[in-house]
Amino acid sequence: MRAVASETRDAVAPPRGIKVLSSIGPVLAHAGPPAVLLAAIFGLWEWGVRTFGIPFYILPAPSRIATLVVTERALLAGEAAVTLLEIFLGFGIALVMGIGLALLIFASRTVERAVYPLVIASQTVPVFAIAPLLIVWLGYGMLSKVAMAALIVFFPIVVNTVDGLRAADPDIINLLLILGATPAQVLVKLRAPAALPFVFSGIRIAVATSVIGAVIGEWVGATQGLGFLMIHANAQLHIDLVFAAIAVLSLMAVGLFLAVSGIEWLVLPWRRLGDS
After folding, report:
1. Which of 243, 162, 164, 260 is nearest to 205 (CA)?
2. CA nearest 102: which of 182, 205, 200, 199?
3. Cα torsion angle, 118, 123, 125, 130, sign
4. What is the pTM of this model?
5. Distance (Å, rounded) from C-alpha 66 to C-alpha 46?
6. 8 Å CB contact between 80 and 143
7. Chain segment 211-241, per-residue pLDDT in tens
8. Helix, strand, coil share of the chain (percent; to 5)
9. Is residue 162 exposed (0-12), middle (13-18) or buried (19+ Cβ within 10 Å)?
10. Which residue in 236, 159, 238, 239 sits closest to 199, CA to CA?
């Protein structure tokens, strides 16, 4: 009987090639359109530079930038490592402090009334105005760049976490309280899991914008990092190197965004079931 069942499964199961194609299909459906659009933009850019003879110190061709990324990979990798460390440190500090403050805002109406409006109002201050002050207070070292990245990341994490903690179903909360659950148990068993999708949404936004914070800090005053490299190359009309640094920063931001999305995919299995 087992042999017959095995033969039946083998007969019903689709060929291996079809399985591979079916798993690649959704990936192509998501990545295909932006890849085609990006290729069209780069093709038009390359054609325009070559056709109109635009010098590289005004607008370099994509092929020249790609070649420079390869030939100067050691320089770019070294500066990118500095910027990435600033991003990780700033993001980590903002994540811990942001979730902690969100819990305080949620738990205390007094804290909410005192702090939450200030958190919202802080976003009206341009980050370029804060960067020189951070250089004065914290110096030209890494600390001022970490602080800048943390400031930019802090807001979306706090706001999304507070919204997530308030998003739990009130009927289920009342049921748990009637059954004798303490507020702490409701927080751990219901509110925290309900808040996780909101927290990850905030983290996805924050981790991409943290790149901007670190680079702004390096623009204002630094001796290392991709932002410093861009300022240095721009002063020497080495515009192709500026574009190469921008390309590395873009890849860095996309990579961080995808990493957070992958962690969310692993940590929140119920969202995968909802999407399927």
Report:
1. 260
2. 199
3. positive
4. 0.81
5. 12
6. no
7. 888 898 898 888 889 999 999 999 998 999 9
8. 85, 0, 15
9. buried
10. 159
